[in-house]
Amino acid sequence: MAIPPESESLSMNVPRRVGLWLIGAHGGVGSTTALGLAALARGQILPTGMVTALPEFAHVIFDEPAAFVIGGHELRPTTFAESIAELKSRSNIFSEAVIAATAEQLSEWDANICPARTNDGPALAAVDAMAADIRAFQRQYDLAAIVVINVASTEPVCDSTAYPTEALAFESWLERSGTTVPASTLAAWAAVRAGCAYVNLTPSLGGRFAAFEDHCRRYGIPHGGQDAKTGETLLKSVLAPMFRMRNLRVLSWVGHNILGNRDGQVLSDPANKASKLRTKDALLAEMLGYRPQSHVSIEYIESLDDWKTAWDHIHFEGFLGVKMTLQLTWQGCDSALAAPLVIDLARLALLARQRGHIGAIPALACFFKSPIGTTVHELSQQYEMLCEYVLRVDL
Ligand SMILES: NC(=O)c1ccc[n+]([C@@H]2O[C@H](COP(=O)([O-])OP(=O)(O)OC[C@H]3O[C@@H](n4cnc5c(N)ncnc54)[C@H](O)[C@@H]3O)[C@@H](O)[C@H]2O)c1
Question: In this structure, are residues 360 and 372 in contact, taking their beta carbons and an 8 Å threshold?
């Protein structure tokens, strides 16, 4: 059953070609990733914001940006050019020169974006259809390997506790019961069936349940997630350890987030917002060792477009019971923060696949709000885990 990692290119001089299959390809993160990869491949931009481009990883053989071909699934009938034009006009990001120089490449990649298959009849039929799309993409470009990354809209919280814990039992349960599972889960299942590494950048369920881990083990596939840590939660994972290390007691931590992009619009639905709030709020107690009063809110404010703003108010107590406050504001461009991490995760998941890694990759924790396979949330510890994993030479 296990699909072996692809063999190296026959000639050492011919770099392999690899695929990045994006679920939700034409969204803000997907389109910015495509634009960025095309611009990097042309040497038009620097890899600023990419962790895999740090000097400590200079000797690691990652797939170069020029090696990537983009494909994917998308719900809306649109193009990369349209999505990028929308981001540019609404949020005033991206240079005209980069857009013009990459236009031809992006339009070529548009032809690889298939309509979402989640309504293709029964669940397993949709899985088969998605896996077939991915395999056709692999054949068309003769790709050595593909990584599937979920950058689709956030889904409502899903209780997966009733799911059977073994892959085959899960499949027959799906078939028998006609139960519906989230679209992100069907896409994750399809990715593994097609022999691809899988990463979930969103708070949606995707592959975060026991039967999926079993599915990956049966096919010999690595996977990672969940919910990229790009703004307020990233700051929390740096600041909370500081309070703990100074023995300053955090009394309360309040974070208000406002954003106006399509993700913000989706999150304005309370069912979808609950997924995000859950992943954003969970890590404080883990890092501090106690649970201070906390509150996280996310509101859709249309005029802000892609410029997500977070205000944090941290009330803490020091020596002799003196109460003090830290307040901060973070204003980040959502897509520009997330896209380099998509490229990093693609390179790292493909490296893991090449090394024969099977199952969850805890070493990717520094990229996620709810890392799979570890409870470590401190950014510095997570970064050490990443370095240790990437730089080890015994694999
Ligand atoms: N930008 C960040 O900083 C950041 C950080 C962490 C997580 N995320 C997550 O990344 C995801 C994408 O964010 P975005 O700003 O690009 O959102 P977006 O709304 O711009 O893009 C999502 C895209 O997914 C498509 N889509 C929805 N369901 C689909 C399906 N079943 N199959 C295929 N396509 C589907 C939509 O049509 C849309 O084009 C969201 O879940 C968001 O929460 C973003």
Answer: yes
- The two most distant CA atoms of the chain are separated, in Å, by 69
Residue 88, SS3? helix
In the reported structure, the alpha carbon of residue 152 is separated from the centroid of ligand 1 by a whole-number distance in angstroms of 3
- 369: CB partners within 8 A, 6+ apart: 203, 226, 227, 228, 229, 233, 279, 280, 282, 283
Distance CA(172)–CA(122), nearest Å, equals 12
| Order of strands, sheet of 323-333, starting from the edge strand that comes earlier in the sequence | 293-300, 249-259, 307-317, 323-333
Is 200 touching ligand 1 by the criterion CB < 6 Å? Answer: no
**pTM, 2 dp:** 0.94
Q: What is the edge-to-edge ordering of all strands in the sheet holding 197-200?
A: 113-115, 68-74, 18-23, 145-150, 197-200, 222-225, 359-360
Return the residue whose CA atom lies nearest to atom 3 of ligand 1: 334
Ligand 1 centre from 28 Cα, in Å?
7
3-state helix/strand/coil string of 91-126: HCCCCHHHHHHHHHHHHHHHCCEEECCCCCCCHHHH
- Residues 251, 260: contact at Cβ < 8 Å? no
What are phi and psi for residue 197, nearest 5 degrees? Answer: -65, 150
Residue 171 has pLDDT above 70, yes or no: yes
Q: What is the pLDDT of residues 255-290, one digit of tens each?
A: 999 988 888 888 778 887 776 677 666 789 989 999
- Distance from the CA of 262 to the center of ligand 1, in angstroms? 8
Atom nearest to 78 CA in ligand 1: 39
Nearest Cα to 343, choosing from 81, 14, 22?
22
Question: What pLDDT score was predicted for residue 267?
Answer: 77
Q: Is the CB of 73 under 6 A from ligand 1?
A: yes
Confirm if 200 and 158 have CB atoms less than 8 A apart. Answer: no
What distance in Å separates the CA atoms of residue 371 and residue 228, rounded to the nearest whole number? 9
Burial of 241 (0-12, 13-18, 19+ CB in 10 A): middle
Of the candidates 57, 40, 37, which has an alpha carbon nearest to the alpha carbon of residue 383?
57
